[in-house]
């Protein structure tokens, strides 16, 4: 991650966790120490982050403590990055404190929505109906050309997912 930041020639101002699952927060403490920026997450993710050792044990991964957020984000908060402004929306379903970050024709959705699919709801705190409702009411109401950046896999657009995602037919 540090090499990618250096390659992109950017000056990070924060680390934002869209949710607290192991695969999204595992390197957060090390990255924070390296680039010296605060970590943000939704307050409902705190138990998930603090339970990172048990998450890791489920998948046979190295067990270590999760990184403590420095600040909490809530529905309606804004993140200002230079001249850019991003809105925070609370989108539980994949996990209780999942958030999406919306701004400039882009939405960063974590594991809420993927190209042609949705995030898992069988992990602790996941709920299928809640996830579907969040996508329908908070993501699919964005303009069709909004670029969707999932936590894994290729980007897509709101319009494409509305038309082709089998979970919304």
**CATH H-level homologous superfamily name:** Ribonuclease Z/Hydroxyacylglutathione hydrolase-like
The global form is globular
What share of the residues does DSSP label as strand, in percent? 15-25%
Count of helical regions: 7
CATH-scheme architecture = 4-Layer Sandwich
What is the total tally of β strands? 11
Summarize the structure.
The protein has 169 residues and is an alpha/beta fold. It contains 7 helices and 11 strands.
Your description of this structure?
With 169 residues, the protein is α/β, with parallel strands linked by helices. The chain has one domain (2-164): Ribonuclease Z/Hydroxyacylglutathione hydrolase-like (Metallo-beta-lactamase, Chain A). It is built from seven helices and eleven strands. It has helices spanning 2-8, 22-25, 28-35, 46-50, 52-58, 128-139, 158-164; strands spanning 15-16, 39-42, 71-73, 78-81, 84-90, 99-103, 106-110, 113-114, 117-118, 147-150, 156-157. Strands 4-5-6-7-10-11 form a six-stranded mixed beta sheet. Strand 4 and strand 5 (84-90) form a beta hairpin. The longest helix has 12 residues, at 128-139. The mean pLDDT is 90.
SSE map:
Elements: H1 2-8, E1 15-16, H2 22-25, H3 28-35, E2 39-42, H4 46-50, H5 52-58, E3 71-73, E4 78-81, E5 84-90, E6 99-103, E7 106-110, E8 113-114, E9 117-118, H6 128-139, E10 147-150, E11 156-157, H7 158-164
Parallel strand pairs: 1-2, 2-3, 7-10
Antiparallel strand pairs: 4-5, 5-6, 6-7, 8-9, 10-11
